[in-house]
Write a structure and sequence with these properties.
alpha/beta; 6-stranded mixed sheet; 46 helices; ABC-type oligopeptide transporter activity
Length: 1305
C-alpha cells in the first residue's frame, strides 16, 4: 500500500487542486451502480480499433493484486477520507471525538453508582441502615442518575450534530475531487468502463458518508465505553476483573477476522454491481432502441446473470454472520455466569468485602461486552465505507496518461494553424494487430479548407482523435506550426482546435448555457453576461439556429432536456456548430457536421461555415460530397492512408476514386441538367425560416412538469408486509429468523429473573444457589449461541435474495415505463441508475440481520415490561408507562423527521450525480470543449445546495436522537428512588425489586438500541415506495394478448404491413401546447416504400415514433392492416417492425450479441446472423476482425466507426424479418461506397416489405414509391421523384442543393 500512502498528499485537503502525480492505482474500478446517456454521446471518433488502454489493463491487474493482500490494509483508504477536511472540519471532528469518548464513559460510571446502591441495599436488608437513612441515601444516588442523563444528552447531541455536519462536508469535497480526477483521465480510459459514474459517485459517496458519520461515532463511543468499563472494574476489584476479562479477546479476535472477510467480499460484490450499473446505464440512455426491439427480456436476462454472480459471493457472507453474532452474545451471557461463580467464591472467602463490588464488576464487564456487540453492526457500515473509499481512490490515484487538467505545456501566442502528419501509424491499444492509420502523411496548410473523404473505417475520424490528443500515435509525428503536438498545453490546444462531431452532443440545461460552453477555457469565459449573450446570438445566427430558437417558448433560455432530447437532430447539430465557432478558434474540425441537416438547411449552414472558414484552418470529414465541393484540397482516404488529393475539379478530371464517389451520389439523370441554370441565387433564400422547426422531435420537459413519483406512500409495516407476502420462498427462513429473534429477545427477562435470584443468594451467602444460577447463565449463553447462529446465516440468505430480486425487478420495471416517463427531467439516466443502485441496497439493509436485531429489541421491550408489571405492578407500571413513552416518543419523532430528510436527499444526490455522469458519457465533447473545470464547478455548486439543506435539518433530528439515547438514565433514577421507597416500607422484597428494576433497565436499553436502526428504517421505507410506485406505473408487459382481433395474424405475416395514417395531430405530453404534427393523412400500401423528407424539426422522426407507438397521437388514428394500433398489444405491434435510427445504438458485448438483440425470444444461429450481416454489407469487415462475431463493441459500441455501427444496426433490424421497416436516416453515417451497397441491400430487404424512410440524402430515396415532403408539421407535397421535380416546389429546391452531376458528367 506504500504507493497509495505516498499518493495521499496529492489528494490533499479539501479545496486544493490535487495533482495527479500519484502512482497509477487502477482504472475504472467500481461498484455499485448506476448511470447515463445515450447514443449521441461520445462521437464516432473511432476507426476500427477498440480503444481501451493497455496501461489501463496493467493498472487493473495491479489494483486487483493489491486487493488480494488482505482487506485490513485497505483501511488506510477509510482514514484517507478525512484528509478532505478543512481546518474547521478538523476542529469540529476533534470536538465531536472528545464528546464521543466522554459520552462512552457515562454507562460505566452508572455501574459505580449501581454498585454503591447495592451496598446500601444490602446494609438495609441486614439491618445496618434505618429506613429513613436508607431513603436519604437512595435519594442521593437517584440524583446521580439525573446528572448522568444531562451529561449524556448534551454530549450525544453535540457529537451527532458535529459528526454529521463534517461528514456531509467531507464527502462533498471527496465527490468533487473524484469527479475532477475522473475527468482528467485520458479518453481511452472511458471507452470500456467497468462501472457507471453516477453509481460510483452516488452509492459510494452515500456509503462513505454513512461510515464516517453516526456509525463511526457509535463505534468510537462503544470503544470508549469498553475501556472505561474496564478501568472502573479494575479500580473496584482487579482480581475478579482479570478472571472475567477472558471473554474479551475471543470476542475481539472473532470480530476482527469477520470484518476483514466481510470487507473483502463487499469489495468483490462492488465490482460486479458496477458491471450491472454500466449495463443499466446503456439500456436507459438508449431506451428507444430497447423499446423498438422489445429487448427487455434479453437485457433483463443479461442484467440478472450479473446479479447472479454477485449473489454467489453474497452467499459466502452467511458463514461470517453465523459466527460473528452468536460468539458475541455467547461471550456476554457466559461472562455473567463466570463473574457470579467466581464472585460468590471470593465473597464467601472474604476476598471481596461487599456484594456491590461483584455487581459493579459484572455490570462493567456487561457494559464492555455490550459495547462490543454494538461495534459489530457499525463495523459492517464501516467495512462498506472502506470498500467504497478504496473504489473511489482507485480513480483518484490513477495517473492520467494525457492529463486534461494539467497546467503544463506550451502556448503559441501567434498560432497560424499549419498542421502536418508525418509517417503516422496508429492502432487502438486493445487491437494492436488491426492498424487504423498506416504511415499517414498529411499536410493541412494554414487558413485553407481540407476535406477528408473515404469509406467508413478508413481512419478519417481517428485523425481528429489524434489532433484532439485523445490518443497518442504509435509511430510518426504530428506538428502544429512545426512544433510537436505533445508539447502544447492541452487546454490551449483544445480551445484553439474546435471539433463538431458526427453525433451532436448537448447537455441538459438551457440552449444559452450549451452555446456559452464554447467559451469555457478561453479568455472570453470571464466576459460580462450581456457580452456573452451577444456572442451567443451572433454564433447562433452564423450557424443558422437563431430563428428556430426564437420560436421556442423561452427562446435561448429554453431547457432542452437530457442530451438535448427536446430538439431534432438538425437543431442539435446547428447549436453544436454555434458552440464550436463562438470562441473564434484558429482550427475547426468538422466530422460530418451537416449530416443531420435537410438539404436546404445544409446549404445555408454550409454557407455559414464557408464564411466562418475565412482566416482559419478547416478540416472537414464528409460523406455528402456536395458539402465539400468548395474545399481547397480534398484528400481521399482508404485503409488508413491517402490515395489521391486535389480540388474537386482536379479530382473529377483525374477520374479516379473521387469521381466514382461523385457519380454514385448523382441525383440528376438529366431531368435537372436542363433546369440547372435556373437555380435561384443564394440571396433569395430569405424564407428559409419556413423550413425551420419551431418544434421538438424528441420530447423532454421544458416547464411545468407534474412531479414524477407523487403516488401515495405505504407505511413501513404495510410495505414490509407486501414485500414479504410476494416472497413465498422466504417464508420459512423468515419464520425461523423471527422465532430466533423472539428467543433472543426473551433472553433478557430470563436474565432479570436469574439476576434477582443470584442477588438473593449473595444476601444470604448461599454459595450453592449462586453457583446453580451461574450455571443457568451459561445455559442461556449456549441457547443464544444456537439462536444467533441460525439467525445470522438465514438473515444473510434473505438479504441476498432481496437484493437480487428487487434490483432485477427495478431494472425490468424502469425499462418498461412508457416514453413519457423517460422524457421527464427528473428521470435522467444518471438519476435512474443511481436509484437502481441505491433503493435495493436500502431495502436489503433493513431486511437482513438488522431486522432480526430489531425484533430482538422489540421482544425484549415488550417481554421485559410484562415481567416488570407481573412481578411488581407498582414499580413496573411507573417504569413502563412513566419513562417508556418519553423514550419511544423521542425515537419516533426522529424517525418521522428522518423520512422527510431522506426523501429529499435521495432525489437531490441522484440529480447531481446525473450532472457528473452526463459529462462522462459525453467525455469526448467535454474534453474537446475543455469543459472539465466548468463541469467540476457546476457539480460543486449542485452539491453546495445539498450540503446546506442537509445541515439545516440536523439540529432537530439529532435533538430527538440524543433524547432517545439518554432518557433511560432518568428512568433508572426514577426506578431507584421509587423502588427504594417500596423496599424501605417492606412492600417489596429485594427479589421483586431486582427483577422489576433489571427488567426495566433492559427494556429501556433495548428501546434506545432500537432507535439506532432508524436510518435503516427510513431508507427502506423510501425505497419500498419507489419500487412499488414503478411497479404500478409499468406500462409494457410481455403478454401476447393482442387486445384486438388477432385472427388474421398468420395470413398477414408473409406480406408487408399496410398502413393508413388518418388525420394525425400530435403534441408531446410534456409540451401539450406545442403541436408537432397537424392533420397528417398518408396511406401506405403493403410492400411499398415511402419516404419522408423535409427541414429538420418538421415532424419526420416524430412520425416514426408514432408508427413504433412510442407515443399515441393526440388526434386521428394510425391503422395497420385495417386495425387501429392503439388497440393492439405493443409487443405484438412491434414484433412486425424494425427500426434503424439516425444515431446507431449498440450495447456493450460482442457484435453477435448486438445483432441477436433483433430477435425477441430465441438466440439466432451464427448462419442467420452472418446472413443479416451480408445483407447489411458489414460481413466482410466482421470477418476481417481477429475475433469475428465475438469482437466486443466497447461502451456504446464506440470501438467501431460510425459507419460500422450503422451497418451492424441495420443487420440487427434485418434479422428480425420485419413486415414494416422504419429507416430514420439509416445511411447518414455511411460513406458513398457503403451507402450504395447498403442501399442495394435495403432495397433487397425491402422486397415484399413495407418501408418508411426518413432521409436528408435524397439519392437514397429517389426510387421510393411515394415521397412525402413535410413542412412545419404538415404535408406540403407528395408524389414520386419525377412528379415532384416536375412540380418545381420544395423538393426540387432540395434536389438542386445536393446535385453534383454537372461535374461528373
Amino acid at each position: 500500500m506504500k504507493e497509495l500512502e505516498s499518493a495521499s498528499p496529492a489528494v490533499g485537503p479539501a479545496g486544493s487542486e490535487p495533482g495527479s502525480g500519484a502512482e497509477p492505482q487502477g482504472s475504472s474500478s467500481s461498484k455499485s451502480s448506476g448511470q447515463h446517456h445515450g447514443p449521441s454521446r461520445g462521437s464516432a471518433v473511432l476507426g476500427m480499433g477498440q480503444e481501451t488502454d493497455a496501461v489501463e489493463q496493467k493498472d487493473e491487474e495491479g489494483k486487483k493484486e493489491k486487493k488480494k493482500k488482505g482487506g485490513d490494509s485497505s483501511f488506510t483508504f477509510f482514514l484517507r477520507v478525512f484528509t478532505y477536511n478543512d481546518t474547521k472540519g478538523w476542529l469540529l471532528n476533534f470536538i465531536a471525538f472528545v464528546c464521543m469518548i466522554i459520552s462512552g464513559t457515562v454507562l460505566p460510571l452508572m455501574d459505580l453508582v449501581f454498585g454503591k446502591f447495592v451496598n446500601v441495599f444490602n446494609d438495609f436488608v441486614i439491618g445496618e441502615l434505618s429506613p429513613a437513612g436508607y431513603r436519604s441515601k437512595v435519594g442521593e444516588f437517584s440524583l446521580y442518575f439525573v446528572y448522568l442523563f444531562l451529561g449524556k444528552f448534551v454530549l450525544d447531541y453535540a457529537w451527532t450534530v458535529l459528526v454529521n455536519l463534517t461528514a456531509i462536508r467531507t464527502t462533498k469535497e471527496l465527490r468533487i475531487d473524484f469527479v475532477r480526477q475522473l475527468l482528467r483521465q485520458e479518453v481511452s480510459f472511458f471507452d470500456s468502463p467497468s462501472s457507471s459514474v453516477s453509481g460510483q459517485v452516488t452509492t459510494n459517496g452515500n456509503l462513505i458518508n454513512n461510515g464516517i458519520s453516526e456509525k463511526l461515532g457509535l463505534t468510537i463511543q462503544a470503544i470508549s465505553s469498553f475501556f472505561a468499563a474496564f478501568v472502573v472494574a479494575f479500580a473496584v476489584q482487579w482480581k475478579l476483573t482479570l478472571i472475567v476479562i477472558s471473554i474479551v479477546p475471543v470476542n475481539l479476535v472473532v470480530t476482527i477476522i469477520c470484518v476483514i472477510l466481510d470487507t473483502a467480499y463487499e469489495y468483490q460484490m462492488f465490482e460486479i454491481y458496477g458491471r450491472s450499473g454500466s449495463l443499466a446505464e446503456e439500456a436507459f440512455s438508449t431506451i428507444r432502441t430497447a423499446h423498438a426491439f422489445w429487448a427487455f427480456p434479453k437485457l433483463s436476462r443479461r442484467f440478472e446473470n450479473i446479479l447472479e454472480d454477485a449473489a454467489k459471493i453474497g452467499a459466502k457472507k452467511s458463514l461470517i454472520y453465523a459466527i460473528l453474532f452468536p460468539i458475541e452474545f455467547f461471550c456476554i451471557f457466559a461472562g455473567y455466569g463466570l463473574a457470579f461463580w467466581q464472585g460468590i467464591r471470593m465473597y464467601s472467602e472474604g476476598e471481596i468485602k461487599d456484594p456491590g463490588t461483584v455487581v459493579t464488576v459484572i455490570f462493567a464487564v456487561l457494559v464492555a461486552a455490550q459495547a462490543l456487540t454494538q461495534i459489530a453492526p457499525q463495523t459492517i457500515a464501516i467495512s462498506k465505507a472502506t470498500a467504497a473509499a478504496s473504489d473511489i481512490f482507485g480513480i483518484i490515484d490513477r495517473k492520467s496518461q494525457i492529463d486534461s487538467l494539467s497546467a503544463g505545456g506550451e502556448i503559441l501566442e501567434d498560432f497560424k494553424g499549419d498542421i502536418k502528419f508525418s509517417g503516422v501509424r496508429f492502432a487502438y491499444p486493445t487491437r494492436p494487430d488491426v492498424p487504423v492509420l498506416r504511415c499517414l502523411d498529411l499536410d493541412v496548410p494554414a487558413d485553407k479548407t481540407t476535406a477528408l473523404v473515404g469509406a467508413s473505417g478508413s481512419g478519417k475520424s481517428t485523425i481528429f482523435g489524434l489532433l484532439e490528443r485523445w490518443y497518442l500515435p504509435t509511430e510518426g509525428s504530428i506538428t502544429l506550426d512545426g512544433l510537436p503536438i505533445e508539447g502544447f498545453n492541452l487546454q490551449w490546444l483544445r480551445t484553439s482546435i474546435r471539433l463538431v462531431q458526427q453525433e451532436p452532443t448537448l447537455f441538459s440545461g438551457s440552449i444559452y448555457q450549451n452555446v456559452v460552453d464554447g467559451l469555457a477555457g478561453t479568455g472570453m469565459a470571464s466576459l460580462p453576461e450581456e457580452e456573452k449573450r451577444r456572442l451567443v446570438t451572433e454564433a447562433c445566427q452564423a450557424a443558422f439556429a437563431h430563428d428556430f430558437i426564437e420560436d421556442l417558448p423561452q427562446s435561448y433560455d429554453t431547457i432542452i432536456g437530457e442530451r438535448g432530447a427536446s430538439l431534432s437532430g438538425g437543431q442539435k447539430q446547428r447549436i453544436v456548430i454555434a458552440r464550436s465557432i463562438i470562441s473564434n478558434p484558429k482550427v475547426l474540425l468538422l466530422d460530418e457536421a451537416t449530416s443531420a441537416l435537410d438539404p436546404k438547411a445544409e446549404k445555408i449552414v454550409q454557407q455559414a461555415l464557408n464564411n466562418v472558414a475565412k482566416g482559419r484552418t478547416m478540416i472537414i470529414i464528409a460523406h455528402r460530397l456536395s458539402s465539400i465541393r468548395g474545399a481547397d484540397n480534398i484528400v481521399v482516404m482508404s485503409k488508413g492512408g491517402t490515395i489521391e488529393n486535389g480540388t474537386h475539379d482536379e479530382l473529377i478530371a483525374h477520374n479516379g476514386a473521387y469521381a466514382s464517389l461523385v457519380r454514385a451520389q448523382d441525383l440528376g439523370h438529366g431531368s435537372i441538367e436542363a433546369n440547372y441554370g435556373e437555380e435561384k441565387e443564394d440571396g433569395e433564400v430569405q424564407d428559409l425560416d419556413n423550413h425551420i422547426a419551431n418544434v421538438s422531435t424528441a420530447a423532454s420537459a421544458v416547464s411545468g412538469i407534474a412531479p414524477a413519483d407523487d403516488d401515495e406512500g405505504y407505511s413501513l409495516a404495510t410495505g414490509l408486509w407486501y414485500v414479504l407476502k410476494e416472497q413465498p420462498d422466504l417464508w420459512v427462513p423468515l419464520t425461523v429468523t423471527f422465532i430466533c429473534g423472539a428467543a433472543g429477545g426473551a433472553t433478557y427477562p430470563a436474565l432479570a429473573v436469574l439476576f434477582s435470584n443470584t442477588m438473593e443468594g449473595f444476601e444470604r451467602m448461599d454459595v450453592g444457589k449462586v453457583n446453580f444460577f451461574a450455571l443457568m447463565f451459561f445455559v442461556v449463553a449456549c441457547g443464544n449461541l444456537v439462536v444467533y447462529a441460525i439467525a445470522g446465516w438465514l438473515a444473510n440468505a434473505i438479504a441476498q435474495h432481496i437484493m437480487k430480486f428487487y434490483r432485477a425487478e427495478l431494472f425490468r420495471n424502469t425499462l418498461r415505463q412508457d416514453m413519457v416517463f423517460f422524457d421527464q427531467p427528473e428521470h435522467s439516466t444518471g438519476s435512474l441508475v443511481s436509484r437502481l443502485s441505491a433503493e435495493p441496497t436500502n431495502l436489503q439493509e433493513l431486511i437482513s440481520m438488522n431486522l432480526a436485531l430489531m425484533l430482538v429489541n422489540i421482544v425484549n421491550l415488550v417481554s421485559s415490561s410484562i415481567l416488570a408489571i407481573a412481578y411488581g405492578w407498582k414499580l413496573g407500571l411507573v417504569l413502563t408507562f412513566g419513562a417508556m413513552p418519553a423514550l419511544v416518543g423521542s425515537g419516533y419523532v426522529r424517525i418521522r423527521l428522518e423520512f422527510k430528510f431522506e426523501d429529499d436527499t435521495a432525489a437531490r444526490f441522484a440529480s447531481s450525480s446525473g450532472l457528473a455522469s452526463e459529462a462522462v458519457m459525453a467525455i469526448r465533447t467535454v474534453s474537446s470543449l475543455a469543459l472539465e473545470r466548468a463541469v467540476v464547478e457546476r457539480y460543486r455548486a449542485a452539491l453546495e445546495g445539498i450540503a446546506r439543506s442537509a445541515i439545516g435539518s440536523l439540529g432537530w433530528k439529532m435533538l430527538f436522537y440524543a433524547l432517545s439515547q439518554s432518557v433511560s438514565f432518568l428512568a433508572m433514577g426514577l426506578g431507584f428512588w421509587y423502588g427504594g421507597r417500596l423496599v424501605s416500607t417492606g412492600e417489596y422484597t429485594t427479589g421483586q425489586f431486582y427483577t422489576v428494576f433489571v427488567a426495566a433497565i433492559f427494556s429501556g436499553q433495548s428501546s434506545a438500541m432500537f432507535f439506532q436502526y432508524t436510518t435503516s428504517i427510513t431508507k427502506a421505507r423510501t425505497s419500498m415506495n419507489y419500487i412499488f410506485a414503478l411497479r404500478r406505473k409499468r406500462e409494457l408487459n410481455d403478454t401476447d394478448d393482442s387486445g384486438g382481433d388477432g385472427s388474421n395474424e398468420e395470413t398477414l405475416s408473409e406480406k408487408g404491413t399496410a398502413v393508413e395514417i388518418e388525420d394525425i395531430g400530435f403534441a408531446y405530453p410534456l409540451r401539450p401546447r406545442l403541436h408537432v404534427l397537424r392533420g397528417i393523412n398518408v396511406g401506405i400500401a403493403s410492400g411499398k416504400m415511402i419516404a419522408f423528407v423535409g427541414a429538420s424539426g418538421c415532424g419526420k422522426s416524430t412520425m416514426i415514433a408514432l408508427l413504433e407507438r412510442f407515443y399515441d397521437p393526440t388526434t386521428g388514428q394510425i391503422r395497420t392492416d385495417g386495425q387501429g394500433i392503439e388497440t393492439r398489444n405493443r409487443r405484438l405491434h412491434r414484433r412486425d417492425i424494425a427500426l434503424v435510427q439516425q444515431e446507431p445504438v449498440l450495447y456493450q458485448g460482442s457484435i453477435r450479441e448486438n445483432i441477436a438483440l433483433g430477435v425477441e425470444e430465441e438466440e439466432p444461429g451464427d448462419e442467420a446472423i452472418a446472413d443479416a450481416c451480408r445483407q447489411a454489407n458489414v460481413w466482410d469487415f466482421i470477418a476481417s476482425l481477429p475475433e469475428g462475431l465475438g469482437t466486443p463493441c466497447g461502451n456504446q459500441g464506440l470501438s467501431l466507426s460510425g459507419g460500422q455501427r450503422q451497418r451492424i444496426a441495420i443487420a440487427r433490424a434485418l434479422i428480425r424479418h420485419p413486415r414494416l421497416l422504419l429507416l430514420d436516416e439509416a445511411t447518414s453515417a455511411l460513406d458513398t461506397e457503403s451507402e450504395k451497397v447498403v442501399k442495394e441491400a435495403l432495397d433487397r430487404a425491402a422486397a415484399g416489405r413495407t418501408t418508411v424512410a426518413v432521409a436528408h440524402r435524397l439519392s437514397t430515396i429517389r426510387d421510393a414509391d411515394l415521397i412525402v415532403v413535410f413542412e412545419r408539421g404538415r404535408v406540403a407535397e407528395r408524389g414520386t421523384h419525377e412528379e415532384l421535380i416536375a412540380m418545381r416546389g420544395m423538393y426540387y429546391e432540395m434536389v438542386l442543393g445536393q446535385s453534383l452531376d454537372r461535374e461528373a458528367a
